[in-house]
């Protein structure tokens, strides 16, 4: 029997639903994702840490959940990290029955096993309209039979990057030709896969690790959750590296923002962020456009870039920055996810651009 629950937004708006996941109240930032598929990858994306994820696609759960297997290199086979990072999942219609050749359990069983609440019966499109008009806001999932159990959100002022980053150095594809230091701000597994598939050794380091004295051929700045202004240590280390060497640097998502901050630019919070698989992006200086997968709530203010930096990509919907590049050095980044797991793979050439710059 599903318990009755209420989603209460910080402006007082209420949505009634049923619990199909773990039965526990939770609070966090309510954000919406417009992707039609990919809930196993999205839930395990560390960039969703601290957030209540709303899926606008109405039917969720019909293809179940793949096995949580780990490859020889330590990466999960079908997920983006070792566990669910989203604080809760909010859907319109949860499918109790599932069918897929690779499914081993239902979405509900997975959520319960990982102690993550899930609610169904919510008009997620109306909820998304509220979030689009007001902007993302905090919310609470409350259980009707526990009226006094009211959670408080652990969000403002929290360094979520520090929570999800690795705590020690991890190596992949050890002994390969070129060596890349990957700064783990909450890296998705497919970013590591894309680098390894291109024949480089990946040295994954914590977000605030000083790698400037290490021997390596290129620097890769990964995605991550929360406010980039909380990562001043990482910015200072990137700035130190850029002052010492012109070694290639590539960033994705949070990596784009940290690179921009190291270059002196400012960051601002988007009204409701970009989360989905259909964001149109234009390559600056051309008429070439790409459909991209995105998951971010902050953006680079391109007007604050130094004279020796320029925009590399722009968003065709709202004109916001989608990537930057240095005018002379091999330093560039994308706000979108070229590894796109799940999602379109139109921009995976970003990894090829980076690897070809390694000396």
From TrEMBL:
Q: What class of enzyme is it?
A: ligase
Residues binding L-glutamine are: 47, 224, 226, 254, 257, 295, 297-298
The catalytic site is made up of 253 (nucleophile), 337, 339
> What metabolic or biological pathway is this protein involved in?
Pyrimidine metabolism; UMP biosynthesis via de novo pathway; (S)-dihydroorotate from bicarbonate: step 1/3; Amino-acid biosynthesis; L-arginine biosynthesis; carbamoyl phosphate from bicarbonate: step 1/1
Gene Ontology terms for molecular function: ATP binding; carbamoyl-phosphate synthase (glutamine-hydrolyzing) activity; glutaminase activity
Q: Where is the Carbamoyl-phosphate synthase small subunit N-terminal domain?
A: 3-142
* Residue intervals passing through the bilayer: none
Per the UniProt entry, the Enzyme Commission number(s) are 6.3.5.5
The entry's keywords = Amino-acid biosynthesis, Arginine biosynthesis, ATP-binding, Glutamine amidotransferase, Ligase, Nucleotide-binding, Pyrimidine biosynthesis
Oligomeric state and interaction partners are given as: Composed of two chains; the small (or glutamine) chain promotes the hydrolysis of glutamine to ammonia, which is used by the large (or ammonia) chain to synthesize carbamoyl phosphate. Tetramer of heterodimers (alpha,beta)4.
Please explain the role this protein plays, according to its UniProt record.
Answer: Small subunit of the glutamine-dependent carbamoyl phosphate synthetase (CPSase). CPSase catalyzes the formation of carbamoyl phosphate from the ammonia moiety of glutamine, carbonate, and phosphate donated by ATP, constituting the first step of 2 biosynthetic pathways, one leading to arginine and/or urea and the other to pyrimidine nucleotides. The small subunit (glutamine amidotransferase) binds and cleaves glutamine to supply the large subunit with the substrate ammonia.
Query: Protein name, please?
Result: Carbamoyl phosphate synthase small chain
**What is the organism of origin for this protein?**
Segatella maculosa OT 289
């Amino acid at each position: 029997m599903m318990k009755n629950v209420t989603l209460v937004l910080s402006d007082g708006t209420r949505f009634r639903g049923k619990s199909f996941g773990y039965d526990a109240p939770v609070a966090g930032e309510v954000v919406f994702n417009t992707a039609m598929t990919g809930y196993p990858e999205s839930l395990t994306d560390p960039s969703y840490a601290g957030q209540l994820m709303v899926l606008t696609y109405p039917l969720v759960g019909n293809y179940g959940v793949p096995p949580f297997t780990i490859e020889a290199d330590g990466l999960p086979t079908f997920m983006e990290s070792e566990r669910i990072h989203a604080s809760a999942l909010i859907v319109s219609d949860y499918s109790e029955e599932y069918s897929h050749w690779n499914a081993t359990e239902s979405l509900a069983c997975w959520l319960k096993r990982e102690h993550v609440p899930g609610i169904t019966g919510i008009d997620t499109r109306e909820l998304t309209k509220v979030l689009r008009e007001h902007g993302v806001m905090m919310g609470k999932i409350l259980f009707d039979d526990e009226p006094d159990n009211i959670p408080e959100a652990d969000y403002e002022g929290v360094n979520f990057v520090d929570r999800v980053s690795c705590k020690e150095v991890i190596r992949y594809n050890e002994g390969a030709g070129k060596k890349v230091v990957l700064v783990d701000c909450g890296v998705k597994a497919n970013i590591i896969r894309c680098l390894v598939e291109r024949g480089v050794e990946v040295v994954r380091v914590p977000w605030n690790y000083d790698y400037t004295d290490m021997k390596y051929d290129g620097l890769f700045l990964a995605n991550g959750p929360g406010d980039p202004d909380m990562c001043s240590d990482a910015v200072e280390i990137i700035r130190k590296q850029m002052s010492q060497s012109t070694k290639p640097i590539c960033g994705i998502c949070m990596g784009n923002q940290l690179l921009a901050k190291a270059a002196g630019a400012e960051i601002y919070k988007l009204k409701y962020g970009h989360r989905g698989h259909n964001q149109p992006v234009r390559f600056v200086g051309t008429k070439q456009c790409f459909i991209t997968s995105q998951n971010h709530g902050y953006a680079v203010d391109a007007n604050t870039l130094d004279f020796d930096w320029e925009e590399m990509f722009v968003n065709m919907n709202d004109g916001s920055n989608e990537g930057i590049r240095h005018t002379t050095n091999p330093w560039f980044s994308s706000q979108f996810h070229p590894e796109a797991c799940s999602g379109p793979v139109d921009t995976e050439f970003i990894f090829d651009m980076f690897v070809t710059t390694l000396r």
